Backbone:
């Protein structure tokens, strides 16, 4: 990876902790990479930046294996032209490492938990949840690839008023199905799935409506929870998302975690009583106001559950980093959670919260509503059956998660290059066809040590080689910044370079040596496309 090599060469002559950048310059004629290292270091080492840059240029120019030119620009920038021989050997490095190309030790085995989706088990998952699932699962894949030990977790909100409302919603529909006139409350769950649940429960328990009301409501609640959770799990698995842990909120109470957490906060002096309620001194840790953890009625708040849950994550299970993937409507919740972690002695920076903005589902020129209680929403399952897993996952990862996303259903289904996932998968399939043709022509793939690298000498060859070299850095940046869309953007760039290559060159020609070199390049590009798609949870088809 040339960026790391440039940094290593510069740091042989500069202070180790220098925060300089190495990145592509604004224009191609300014080289392959540029750095502001001399500008940043000038003040530290008491040298004029341009003078220091000239000295660095002279020293780094000696590395003919890495650079064909190193020049000073402006007040002290350094521009690098990478040696063609370096780019050509990228193919060998990619093929030698195989599927591990792009892996890094960034995480150094540190334990990270990614908690995502965690939708209330009160109805089917909608497309907003699907976006969170795509982001969370892809992020878990990227972090694992970058050397972290990753645990995927789903937190089940299976207690509190919402569960009582769910149970009552099913019970009322069951009574309605049995012939009663029911005035259905506006604040209850009203979707067709509630009627379906009621019908299934009545077939299992014909005696439901003969039971005492409290017993019937509990039965409706437990049945609905079990059935909805089963459907959520099935939908996520069909979407390619599998969890290591399903963690129940009810368990937090059964194991005494909530009382234990509140007791610790009380002993540390971070709780007080006012107006009959128990409050956390959140303002002492940067929040805008103090927060209730137990109501005057004696019932713990949802925040109390979250305190216990995050205390358990950090102080009992020992995660080094926790990534919570939440809906954007939870943005106001982040400061209080970080405040309570600080109160518990946990570095709040170890909690990273990603906020998933809404999905605007465009179908027939209309936006679909997402109201769970009204029941007027497009489910994950419906969209999955209409456009497929690959199109959904890739499209959800074409934007930063904190930006709203317009999902065009017709485009996602289209078998044409305007569809981003088709564009990338088609690049992979085109390369697969190259190998089928090579086999038909009896052209053998060269040994890695015998690839005629010097035949990779066109601008289009170098464009692909540079992108291949860049892939490990993209993985590290995606892991560090928690931004899976960086992989998506990279794949689109690589696919564009590959499709452009096809307009100007043939991988297989009469020139056997050039064909062997290009066959090696094709395999390297195909391998990186497949690996990148896998990090997004998207398939890499051999034929299309």
Residues:
């Amino acid at each position: 990876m040339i960026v790391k090599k440039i940094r290593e060469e510069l740091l042989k002559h500069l202070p180790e902790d220098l925060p300089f950048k190495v990145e592509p310059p604004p224009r191609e004629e300014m080289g392959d990479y540029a750095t502001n290292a001399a500008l940043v270091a000038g003040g530290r080492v008491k040298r004029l930046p341009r003078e220091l840059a000239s000295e660095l240029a002279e020293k780094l120019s000696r590395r003919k294996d890495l650079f064909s030119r190193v020049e000073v620009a402006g007040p002290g920038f350094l521009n690098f032209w990478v040696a063609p021989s370096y780019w050509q050997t990228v193919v060998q490095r990619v093929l030698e490492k195989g599927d591990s190309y792009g892996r890094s030790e960034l995480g150094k085995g540190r334990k990270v938990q990614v908690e995502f989706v965690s939708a209330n088990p009160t109805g089917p998952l909608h497309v907003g949840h699907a976006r969170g699932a795509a982001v969370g699962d892809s992020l878990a894949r990227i972090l694992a690839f970058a050397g972290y030990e990753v645990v995927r977790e789903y937190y089940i909100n299976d207690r509190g008023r919402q569960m009582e409302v769910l149970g009552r919603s099913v019970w009322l529909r069951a009574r309605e199905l049995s012939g009663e006139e029911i005035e259905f409350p506006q604040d209850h769950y009203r979707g067709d799935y509630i009627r379906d649940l009621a019908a299934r429960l009545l077939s299992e328990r014909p005696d439901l409506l003969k039971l005492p009301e409290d017993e019937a409501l509990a039965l409706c609640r437990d049945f609905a929870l079990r059935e909805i959770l089963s459907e959520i799990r099935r939908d996520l698995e069909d979407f390619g998302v599998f969890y290591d842990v399903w963690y129940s909120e009810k368990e937090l109470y059964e194991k005494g975690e909530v009382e234990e957490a509140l007791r610790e906060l009380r002993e540390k002096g971070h709780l007080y009583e006012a107006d009959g309620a128990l409050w956390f001194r959140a303002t002492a840790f940067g929040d805008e106001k103090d927060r209730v953890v137990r109501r005057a009625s004696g019932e713990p708040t949802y925040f109390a559950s979250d305190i216990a849950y995050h205390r358990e994550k950090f102080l009992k299970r020992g995660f080094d980093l926790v990534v919570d993937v939440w809906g954007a409507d939870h943005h106001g919740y982040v400061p209080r959670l970080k405040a309570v972690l600080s109160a518990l002695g946990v570095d709040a920076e170890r909690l990273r919260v990603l906020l998933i903005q809404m999905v605007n589902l465009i179908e027939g020129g209309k936006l679909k509503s997402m109201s769970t209680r009204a029941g007027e929403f497009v489910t994950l399952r419906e969209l999955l059956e209409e456009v497929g897993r690959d199109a959904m996952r890739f499209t959800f990862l074409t934007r930063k998660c904190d930006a709203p996303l317009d999902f065009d259903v017709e485009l996602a289904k289209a078998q044409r290059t305007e569809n981003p996932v088709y564009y990338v998968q088609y690049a992979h399939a085109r390369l697969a066809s190259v190998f089928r043709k090579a086999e038909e022509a009896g052209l053998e793939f060269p040994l890695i040590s015998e690839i005629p690298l010097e035949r990779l000498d066109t601008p289009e060859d170098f464009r692909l080689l540079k992108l291949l070299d860049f892939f490990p850095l993209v993985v590290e940046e995606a892991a560090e910044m928690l931004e899976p869309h960086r992989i998506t953007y990279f794949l689109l760039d690589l696919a564009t370079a590959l499709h452009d290559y096809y307009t100007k060159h043939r991988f297989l020609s009469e020139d056997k040596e050039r064909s062997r070199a290009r066959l090696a390049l094709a395999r390297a590009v195909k391998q990186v496309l497949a690996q990148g798609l896998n990090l997004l949870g998207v398939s890499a088809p051999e034929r299309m």
In short: The longest helix spans residues 213-238. The mean pLDDT is 95. Residues 228 and 378 are 16 Å apart (CA to CA). The radius of gyration is 29 Å.
